[in-house]
């Protein structure tokens, strides 16, 4: 599933930024053949390759793996009904912040995780 999300996100970002696969290959240091196989869903990239591509696209790796514009039905089909993620109304983000703001954001994340865990336990 993550491979499909990964390559659909690459294609979306290439389109948004007006970058060709050839340019991505040069920017990332990943061969053109591998980029083509990857964006056609025919290859399994290593973590190192995924990081090179994320850096070339100036985006975070988690954003390429977790966020998608695929509809829920397609995602559930890919995961055989085992779709996991953050609860509805929440969003996972990756940020670069000054140290003091990062501390505050980490506190918010900790509080939110505790809140979601309590809600999950109530459901059981």
Walk me through what this model shows.
It is a single chain. The protein is mainly α and 124 residues long. It is built from seven helices and no strands. The chain has helices at 2-17, 21-28, 32-39, 47-56, 61-66, 72-78, 99-123. Helix 2 (21-28) packs across helix 4. It is globular, with a radius of gyration of 17 Å. The chain starts with a helix and ends with a helix. The mean pLDDT is 82.
Biggest β-sheet, characterized? Answer: none
Order of helices and strands: HHHHHHH
Gyration radius over CA: 17 Å
End-to-end Cα distance: 27 Å
Structural class: mainly alpha
Number of helices: 7
Helix content: 55-70%
Low-confidence spans: pLDDT under 50, at least 5 residues? none
The overall average pLDDT, rounded, is: 82
As a percent range, the share of strand residues is under 5%
Using the alpha-carbon principal axes, give the shape. globular
Tell me the number of strands: 0
Q: What's the structural blueprint in terms of helices and strands?
A:
Layout: H1 2-17, H2 21-28, H3 32-39, H4 47-56, H5 61-66, H6 72-78, H7 99-123
Helix pairs in contact: 2-4
Précis, in short:
With 124 residues, the chain is mainly α. It is built from 7 helices and no strands.
Keyphrases for this structure?
about 120 residues; mainly alpha
């Amino acid at each position: 599933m993550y491979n499909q999300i990964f390559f659909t996100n690459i294609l979306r970002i290439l389109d948004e930024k007006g970058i060709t696969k050839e340019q991505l290959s040069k920017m990332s240091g990943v061969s053109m053949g591998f980029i083509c196989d990857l964006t056609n869903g025919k290859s399994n990239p290593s973590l190192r390759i995924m990081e090179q591509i994320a850096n070339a696209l100036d985006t975070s790796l988690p954003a390429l793996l977790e966020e998608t514009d695929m509809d829920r039905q397609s995602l559930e089909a890919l995961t055989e009904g085992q779709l996991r993620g953050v609860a509805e109304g929440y969003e996972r983000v990756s940020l670069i912040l000054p140290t003091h703001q990062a501390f505050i954001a980490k506190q918010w994340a900790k509080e939110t995780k505790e809140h979601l865990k309590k809600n999950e336990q109530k459901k059981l």
